[in-house]
Each structure stands twice: as C-alpha cells, then as structure tokens.
Specification:
The complex is a heterodimer of chains A (about 180) and B (about 240). By secondary structure, chain A is α/β, with parallel strands linked by helices. Helices cover about 30% and strands about 20% of the residues of chain A. Chain A has a 5-stranded parallel β-sheet with strand order 2-1-3-5-7, sandwiched between helices. In chain A, strands 4-6 form a two-stranded antiparallel sheet. Among the domains of chain B are: about 90 residues, Ubiquitin-like (UB roll) (Roll); about 80 residues, Alpha-Beta Plaits (2-Layer Sandwich), CATH 3.30.70.20. Chain B is globular, with a radius of gyration of 18 Å. Chain B is α+β, with helices and mostly antiparallel strands. In chain B, a hairpin with a 2-residue loop joins strand 3 and strand 4. At the A-B interface, helix 4 and strand 7 of A face helix 3 of B.
Chain lengths: ~180, ~240
C-alpha cells in the first residue's frame, strides 16, 4: 500500500506572490513533491478553504480583516505553520505604510493623489476592512518556522520543505539565510 | 604574560586589555556591533556578552584578568545574543529588501551569524525622521541602532557632528547644526563618521547597489570571518603604536 500523502496548503496575504513564484522555482523538484504531497488550499489548486493539513505556508503580512481570518484558518488546520518571506516575518514593503495614518493613505490614493479620476474611497461591503497597521504574521498566530528572504530562494524553500516532510526542524546553512 | 581561558582555550593578554581585545588579538571573534578597535568602548549593544566565571559581562568593557574563565560560544550565550539582535530589529524599521546597506550591514550579518530567521518580538514600527539634506550623506534614522560609533568617530574627526539625545525608547540621533539638519553641519563626506555606521543609518549617497548580490561583504563570509580579517589587524596596529 502506498504511503499516505502529505497535505500542503499555501496562501499569500499582504504579499506580492513573489514567494510563491520562488516556490515554483524549485522547477522539476515539483514533480518529486507531487509524488509525496497533495496541495490543499493554495493559489495553485484554487481550493477555497483548508481541510486538515500537515504543512501550511504563509506568504505576506496581515493588512486587512480577511488576512486575519485566512491566517487563523491556516493555524487551525495546519499542524506546522511556516512563515515565508520578509513580509510575513516583519511586514515588509506593505508595512512601510505604518509610518502614515491610514486615513491619509486612503485620501492620497483615492481622493487627492496625482491622476485620480472619479475620487471616492472604495466602500463596497465585500471589501475587507483595512487594519490601521500592517503586522507580521507572528503577531497574530503562533508560527512554527520562518524562512526569511525577499523572496527566499527556491533552494531555501526546498531545504526547509524536505526537512519538514522528513519530520525534522529546518536547519538552514549560512548561504541560505538572507533577509533580502 | 598573564592568561585567561576562552572557550576552554588558554589565551594571553596584555594588562589593561578588555576581554574582547584579548580575544581579538588572538584572532578569536566575539560578536559585537557597537565596539570598534579604533574607538573607546560604548558597552551598549550587549552583543559581546560572555560568561566570565559564571556571570554575564560585556566583553568590550570588562577587563581581562589572570585566571578568568570566559565562555562565549555556548548555546545559552548564542540564545541571549539572538534575542538582543531581534530586539534591535523590532525597535527600528529594518526592511532589508529596500535597504542599500543590505549585504554589507553588520546588524543583518549578525542575524545571519546567529541563525536568526524571525524577529520573535512584536514590531514597534517607530516613526523617525529621515534627513536627506546633506549633498553627499544620507541619514536614515529608521535604521539607527544607537551604537554611537558615528558620535565617537566624529569626536575623533574633531567635529562632534553627531550625538544621542533623549532617553530609553525616546533616544534619537541628533545633529549639531543650527537647523539640526545634516546639510547645515560641517560633516564632510570624507570624515570617518560618514563611513563608520555598521547599519544603513548613515550612508554615502550615489554609492548604493554598486556591488552585485553574491559579491557583497557578507554574502560569502560571515561577520566573524570579516571581523577577524579586518578588525584584528586594526587592534594590533593600535597596540604597536602604543609600544612605539
């Protein structure tokens, strides 16, 4: 009988999908991964909600109410939760807005900014409410492991993922730890 | 010559040397950010914390003494230094991907050296002023770690351009000029103070991103290797000059 497959979920919160692109960059190793793992909720699978998963991978920080909900869903359904990339770890580029008042940000983006036509702050009830600050994911839920980098290299992601699948804590060598 | 035990190894020291000087003179690295062999110690970053006869001390200010047992490379001390480094990261705004000092930054390299993969603590996201008024030097206070190296270097330059003002979490780097702006100070781009910053707080303009990724200071060598290669000779030179 074949071994039960590992279930992996991934998501991008307030990120740019660069970490997911870097994940894709593991290239033909994706085929090795597909042998032993199935993708649950992920931009790759288009599944909308998590079932129980072995590993959850979270890209991006937390900038709105939906991010908080998704992140909590991942924490509730994933045995191991991995923060991937600078934005998940410290807020990253989206957190540069933290030095500004949120009202000022919206005003400049949608009312007074250069090139704005039909000035109006979007208020559709389906839009998730913005948080006043962008937060790293570890400020909202417990994170088990973090992979720094903008983005972490494919080799970093692969090294961590294979360690986790084998049941070990990821130990990144010096050349695979980068914050940029 | 008198000796101390450093991580189980006997090393000699000259009377008057601190523990970090004794270690560095023997090409042994103790992590540090605010210490520099050319300036008096400041003792603020605490990265050089070591256990001396069972007690935590700052190696940059603690004098070496005959028979001391110094432990620097234990897991306990690494954990302590890791937490200190994480505190430095969350206290400022350190966004490495958009920082021109990335790859050449001692704070970042310290994180790499200590195996830091997250920041552990909640972030402060402080609002600090950026001063781009000087034609050749940028002062980005978001990245300042208050090591006072620029203060000490500017003092040695005979100018006193920089100083730390305020206390505790309100501490900030200030500039001695009528407007408080760097552009109105007498800082020259060739001053030591313009080049001593271990992080990206004081950077020389029009020099950013010239070195490609992969060839930057800490891309291939750890901060320990760079420090022993670059700072230990400075320390030896200082002691040779003293003897002359």
């Amino acid at each position: 009988m074949s071994k039960k497959k590992i279930r992996i979920a991934t998501t991008s919160l307030a990120g740019c999908f660069g970490c997911h692109m870097s994940f894709m960059d593991i290239d033909e190793r994706l085929l090795d991964l597909a042998e032993i793992a199935d993708f649950d909720r992920s931009p790759l699978s288009d599944i909308k909600h998590c079932e129980q998963c072995d590993i959850g991978i979270v890209e991006g920080g937390v900038c709105n109410a939906e991010n908080v909900e998704v992140l909590r869903e991942f924490r509730n359904h994933c045995k191991i939760l991995v923060a991937i990339g600078a934005c998940a770890i410290n807020g990253g580029i989206p957190a540069l807005r933290n030095r500004c008042d949120l009202g000022d940000c919206l005003e400049e983006a949608f009312l007074t900014g250069i090139g704005v036509t039909d000035p109006k702050v979007p208020g559709d009830p389906e839009l998730p409410l913005l948080l006043d600050k962008v937060h790293p994911v570890h400020e909202v839920v417990k994170i088990d492991y973090s992979l720094p980098g903008c983005p972490p290299s494919a080799d970093t992601i692969w090294a961590a993922l294979t360690a986790l699948i084998e049941g070990n804590a990821p130990q990144l060598p010096y050349e695979l730890i980068h914050y940029d | 010559m008198p000796t101390i035990s450093f991580d189980g190894q006997e090393i000699t020291f000259e009377p008057g040397q601190t523990i970090i000087e004794a270690a560095m003179a023997s090409d042994l690295y103790i992590p540090h950010l605010c210490w520099h062999p050319d300036f008096p110690p400041h003792g603020s970053c605490k990265l050089c914390s070591v256990k001396v006869n069972g007690r935590i001390c700052s190696a940059c200010t603690f004098p070496a003494a005959e028979g001391q047992e110094v432990v620097s490379s234990s897991e306990e001390v690494r954990q302590l230094r890791l937490r200190l480094t994480q505190m430095l990261f969350v206290e400022g705004n350190h966004f490495c991907p958009s920082c021109e000092k990335s790859g050449q930054c001692e704070l970042q390299a310290m994180g790499y050296y200590l195996g830091m993969t997250d920041n552990h603590y909640p972030h402060f996201f402080p609002v600090r002023d950026i001063d781009a008024s000087h034609p050749h030097v940028l002062l980005d206070r978001d990245r300042c770690i208050f090591c006072e190296l620029c203060v000490r270097a500017s003092r040695a330059d005979g100018k006193n351009v920089f100083e730390l003002a305020g206390r505790g979490i309100h501490t900030r780097l200030v500039v001695d000029s009528p407007s408080g702006k760097l552009g109105d100070s007498n800082l020259d781009v060739n001053d030591r103070a313009a080049h001593i910053c271990p992080v990206g707080a004081i950077v020389v303009k029009e020099t950013a991103f010239r070195i490609p990724i992969g060839q930057r200071k800490y891309d291939r060598r750890t901060i320990a290797e760079v420090s022993v290669a670059e700072e230990a000779p400075l320390l030896r030179k200082r002691y040779e000059q003293k003897e002359d």
